[in-house]
Design brief:
This protein has 174 residues and is of the alpha/beta class. Strand 2 (16-19) and strand 3 (23-26) form a beta hairpin. The chain is elongated and about 80 Å long. Helix 3 (63-69) runs parallel beside helix 5 (118-133). The chain has six helices and seven strands.
């Protein structure tokens, strides 16, 4: 079994509300946390641009980032869904995707100001995990990785046993 891990992105739109007097208006990103079933969990928000495929492959191919993301709600918002005006000026960075981290209460903690690396994202996730859970993300990533290794070994052992069983049946039927 080869590990094919990916971040479990929740495709989301920028949170909005509507009322008869004012029509539709943008809400703060904390509204995403309030709508989620996973309470008391920090969030990683990725505002994706159309041409980010190369960036995504480079950033999200890191196993530690993928495993670390399991402890966060991960939202992907299409940049075209970001409301125009002050919000788009703040959250749509020129030439690079935007990453925002919310704490477990939904408060915006950090947002990149320029291009980011896997190292930058990992560092921010570790810091937020420590703040929200008073624990080290590195330890939990290691436990999850070890568990996946055990699962992979068990899957390999099962496949080997099935091959041996099939070979034995073939010999007996001849």
């Amino acid at each position: 079994m080869a590990r094919e891990l990916a971040i479990n992105w929740i495709d989301a739109e920028w949170p909005t509300s509507w009322d008869e007097n004012y029509g539709e208006r943008a809400l703060p990103l904390s509204a995403l946390s309030k709508l989620s079933e996973e309470k008391n969990k920090p969030s990683l928000i990725y505002v994706a641009r159309e041409d980010d495929a190369k960036v995504e492959k480079k950033l999200f191919g890191d196993e530690n980032l993928v495993l670390g993301s399991r402890f966060f709600r991960c939202y992907r918002i299409d940049a075209r869904d970001v409301p125009a005006g002050k919000i788009s000026q703040k959250y749509l960075l020129k030439g690079t995707p935007t990453f925002i981290i919310l704490d477990a209460k939904g408060n915006e903690v950090v947002m990149n100001k320029k291009k980011v690396s896997t190292r930058w994202i990992n560092g921010k996730l570790k810091k937020q995990f420590a703040a929200d859970f008073r624990a080290k993300l590195k330890v939990h990533i290691k436990k999850l990785s070890d568990w996946l290794d055990d699962l992979e070994k068990a899957d390999d052992n099962l496949a080997n046993a099935q091959r041996a069983h099939t070979a034995l049946e073939d010999r007996e039927s001849k």
